[in-house]
Design a protein that fits this description.
The structure is a homotrimer of 350-residue chains. The first copy, chain A, is an alpha/beta fold and 350 residues long. Chain A has four helices and 39 strands.
């Protein structure tokens, strides 16, 4: 019953119970047009609830139906009882997902340099530009207004979303996604003082993005002085992230929004960096290191584990540090009083 | 005497005194072509000065004329004496303001999908793109290079400035402004590990921007997993702000530059967040909470008030914390000395 | 032997030794196609190594040849022995550098307002837009998709890279570079509460960028309330930087990525601001002040020097502060124990 336009995808509750597994209680003919949260007001939305708290929220919200645990009793709305509601909801999200689509092969307004190579199955959207020596591989999609600069390559089935810029010498692996407005391949930030003014150090290297990497909206990844700035396979980064020249980010890492990594820092595999955290330049960070949000790594980290704070310290110390911060205002006062007291005691004893 | 091009708007000082209220002293025929600051070098600029300090600055700068308090004596330049100089200057700014204007209805290079709906009074600029099922309401203006994606709606009299992207399923209320390069409706940042690699959680929700919301340049607002990421009416945000999926920002809130709000956090009405402050994920922040610049809210906040620091603490505690930070280097030393001293005293007493 | 396409620039090692100075040891006919790092795997790359550590790395990597100090002994690869390897490598980078180039004068898809002035030697790329009263000076280059708004001026030999926006009343000096996606001239962020909602304060000023300024990708510089937001000559800023309305940044300053400067703050000459550092509004910062990464200047700074921390303190204090942070978790415990101990001692003495 689903049709091809994502905005109108729909199934009945009974159909969904057959797709997702589970058993319907209540009106199985209810038409579901969207996944929803427990507090949604959408009468055709399907949410999930695993705890008493969320069952309560869903019971009183406007949501149409709920995926609930097995043997949930006396629930006032149509449900799918399922052994793993959260997992079923995940499958529901996949069901309703629709990819970004380019409808034409190469839009007549796209400007492709004569030396560029575009695979016949690739697509290039309206007002997109593909410059000299660029290569667009099989199944790749360049969305409207994107700019693929000289000597850039977009790998198989990768997507470059609207307004993204691959400026120069950027190689994108397969199955990557570059978010709207992201800028890859801009010159690294390095200058020397010639006695009179700052002179830019030429950045003649590139950017290597390996397979299955996602890059958020408005994220910047600079090209290297020499060789490449490298994002290893499977890494994901959120919006407004800064990756400086010659950084090497390990495979399967996850960078939350507004993270910054300064020049030439090498980060191991499986890194997780919380929002607004950052790394100083020229550090070496071991595999399996994670930073809590807002953490600043000011020196290299050799042991895997979770770190937090300014400067980065093991998370356990950071948690204690956070507790003390709130009492810090009183510390100086207490210290002064103790010093006075001890001075007095010394006087009495002399 | 003002003409229609903002760059050449001008009035004489006398004309301005009639418009703004107040009385001219000195040359009323002086032509004013721009509001100016007290230290301006513009001989046709009109500044304001309320304090002795700023009167002094204005007297010695190159600015042409000054709005001053009533009965200001012996001032060397033409003035408008006014009972509320700052307020009069605010009115002057409004007088010289000119809106961004699109000159044509729909620019011939704009690309509008056949299923999109554009109100006859709306305008669409050069190289702008409006995708499938998008709706552009009465009086709305889509500026050059803007991208209005599938299933997006732009409300009445809203402006989408150059290079802004509404990627998918973004609903903009009336009288909103989206800054240049802002990206709304990109996928939220969520992954699960399938044992082999990170897999993106589909984000099938949207973004709801209510009426009278301003969004800064290069700000990112992600779409929800399900339902909407919501910015309630009258809220204003500065440049380079990050709003993650499923955030709900209360009405009439003000977010300064580089603020980040992590996923699913709900913020009450009248929030004010200082520059570079941030919120962890899944928090609930009460109405009337403000954060000082650089603050990190790591847990929910139930009481209205101003908070500061990492972690966020009541502003009074934070101010004491800031004072102690500068002395912290000596604390360990003093603590060690005290411990030694007390140990010695104990020895003497035993 | 070098040809004109940067992607295929090449010289033999002997040719390079003649250009850079120094003496070849080993195969002088080796063709060098790129500067490289010591750890590169490029057999036609030329790296430099000054220390035993880097000589070791280069000896075991795949890099083809190395610039080494005079009288380096027994090195296994072709080398250029040079009295200053790092300096020679810098010259090598300049040799391989190629400027961004626009091939046509004014691309047929560029849209130029009839009131705009374009110097005959200037170039305007595909889909770029130049609005009313804009001026593009001699040798200036406006890259594809760039937007030059009303009353903007681009100085001699300045480059505005793809997707950059000069929204309104932005004056760019000569020899500047504006990075991809940067937004200059958006309205400053200021509102007043009218009892019912936030009302925008009109920003009728502009942005003045003086000569030899570089602006990073996705950096935002807002226009002033009145007069100009000013970036003085020779200053350089990295990606994702925020400069608010009416800021005045001193000459030859260097701002690393994700720095934020709040409204009306005046910063002296020769400033260096580390990554993710920030300045509160309305501060006055002396000439010659630098901030370490992540520092927050919350009040004016009168003395030149390096500062760090939150709030900014002299770097020496900050370094001690950083050391204490890691021990802070134990401070409260030790303080409590001391208080108990002193109380006990007092009891014994009374």
């Amino acid at each position: 019953m689903a049709n091809e336009t994502w905005s109108t995808k729909s199934w009945t509750l009974t159909e969904l119970s057959q797709i997702l597994g589970g058993e319907v209680f209540g009106d199985g003919n209810l038409v579901i047009t969207a996944p929803a949260t427990a507090k949604s007001s959408n009468p055709n939305g399907l949410a999930f609830a695993e705890s008493a708290e969320y069952l309560e929220i869903a019971a009183h919200s406007g949501v149409g139906a709920v995926i609930v645990p097995l043997s949930t009793q006396n629930f006032s709305k149509p449900t799918i009882q399922h052994e793993a509601p959260r997992k079923a909801f995940g499958a529901l999200l996949h069901l309703f997902q629709t990819p970004y689509l380019l409808t034409e092969s190469i839009h007549p307004t796209a400007i492709i340099h004569e030396s560029a190579t575009i695979h016949p199955s690739a697509k290039v959207g309206a007002y997109a530009i593909v410059e000299a020596n660029a290569i667009i591989a099989e199944g790749a999609e360049i969305f409207p207004h994107a700019y693929i600069g000289e000597n850039c390559a977009v790998g198989m089935y990768s997507k470059v979303l609207p307004h993204a810029v691959l400026l120069r010498k950027v190689t994108l692996g397969s199955h990557c996604e570059v978010g709207p407005g992201a800028v890859l391949g801009h010159s690294g930030f390095g200058y020397y003082w010639n006695g009179e003014k700052h002179v830019a150090i030429p950045h003649v290297g590139g950017v290597e993005i390996q397979d299955h990497v996602d890059i958020g909206a408005l994220t910047a990844i600079d090209r290297a002085t020499a060789d490449n700035t490298t994002i290893q396979e499977g890494s994901k980064m959120d919006n407004l992230v800064q990756i400086a020249h010659n950084v090497d980010l390990g495979a399967h890492s996850v960078l939350a929004s507004q993270v910054g990594i300064a020049g030439s820092t090498v980060i191991g595999k499986g890194n997780v960096s919380g929002g607004q955290s950052g790394y100083a330049a020229h550090l070496v960070i071991a595999d399996g290191v994670s930073l809590a949000g807002r953490t600043a790594a000011l020196s290299s980290i050799e042991k895997p584990g979770v770190y937090g704070g300014i400067p980065a310290m093991p998370i356990r110390e950071y948690r204690r540090n956070l507790v003390v911060q709130k009492e810090l205002g009183s510390v100086m006062q207490r210290l002064k009083e103790l010093e006075k007291e001890v001075e007095r005691l010394k006087g009495e004893l002399s």
